[in-house]
Amino acid sequence: MNLPxxxxxxxxxxxxxxxxxxxxxxxxxxxxxSAFFLFALDQATRYREAHAWLIWxxxxxxxxxxxxxxxxxxxxxxxxxxxxxxxxxxxxVVPLRLAPxxxxxxxxxxxxxxxxxxxxxxxxxxxxxxxxxxxxxxxxHEDRRILLMAGISAGFxxxxxxxxxxxIFGLEVLAIGxxxxxxxxxxxxAAIAADQVGMAWGVRHTHYALQAAPPLTLLNVAAVxxxxxxxxxxxxxxxRSTHAASAFMKRRIAYAPLRPLLGGCVIALAVWLLGTRYxxxxxxxxxxxxxxxxxxWDWAGKFVFTVASLGSGFKGGEVTPLFYLGATLGxxxxxxxxxxxxxxxxxxxxxxxxxxxxxxxxxxIMAIELFGPQIGPFAxxxxxxxxxxxxxxxxxxxxxxxxxxxxxxxxxxxxPPPGAG
Length: 421
Known about the structure:
Elements: H1 8-11, H2 13-50, H3 58-72, H4 80-88, H5 98-112, H6 119-131, H7 133-137, H8 141-160, H9 163-172, E1 175-176, H10 184-200, H11 218-252, H12 258-274, H13 283-289, H14 298-311, H15 319-337, H16 341-357, H17 360-371, H18 376-389, E2 400-401
Parallel strand pairs: 1-2
Helix pairs in contact: 2-5, 2-6, 2-8, 2-10, 3-5, 3-12, 4-8, 5-6, 6-8, 8-9, 8-10, 9-10, 9-17, 11-14, 11-15, 11-16, 11-18, 12-14, 13-15, 14-15, 15-16, 16-17, 16-18, 17-18
GO molecular function: chloride transmembrane transporter activity
Main location: membrane
Protein name: H+/Cl-antiporter ClcA
């Protein structure tokens, strides 16, 4: 006897209940881990700023981080790319040790003065902690893919305070030109709840002052399109340079701990010559970029310091340095394009990231969450143009290539760029 089928809305209730529970647990784990990380990062930054001599210990700190990863972290060294690979081709649960290793490695890198970010750490912790629920709930491969995506969304949302952008980032980052809608509900729940968990722990995110946007005139739109193209080229150059620096170091130095040791020596000497403006997260400089004219070479300084840090093996993310690079580049372009400093700084903040990560939708939503709805039309144009002009390069070499970025463009054959291994 065939039982009558339930109406589709009722049939969805078990699915909704299941993913509310799982995504809620992911949010609690990831939001708490991000809160602890942000507090530790803040303390490390304050201590380094009060004790400038710590920069001379950066080579030894780099050697220590490299040695620990060599002995304990070979299976998780790929970081974000490991999570993306596991979503595309599930094989085994991500080892839990990824979370404490990347947490400690990033805090040490910041304590002693490397120019690295924080997104990679939060995303890796979120993904690793989420994946531990695979065995708890006996999830199949397809559900495990969604679980990892929710962990990525939760980590991104809780570290930047941008829940909607975090949710879309987890769906968009996997493949260029494709968006995974099958995970949209778990990613939304995990991202929004993880942000709330972080705030419940006392996390407060940086406020960026952006006044009313200029009118959407033809001249202003043309200026934003030109800026978007430059932001995309900057994102492409950053991604390619980071991969090339990593490949060069791996070819020249076989013993992994020596790479950050040598890189730390170069960075310490550069800080002695140029000062501390281009190390750490650089949040104060980003805030400055919204308020007044800066030196037109600030973006290039951050570019070189970050490529040297990440390319030589220091741990951390790429995204906050990309925010710095974009905001200062936008600040430098503002007088040339006759647009307000705050507007161009905000557009550069998100658009360079959109180009480097191939995530124009998440970046546009991030702009609205951070700077307000008035920037929305300009941010959408800048992020999409940056996405187009960055080509198929990207900071995540495990990112798959779907359709071309436009119908006349064929995507390159799959495979990581040089040095991705």
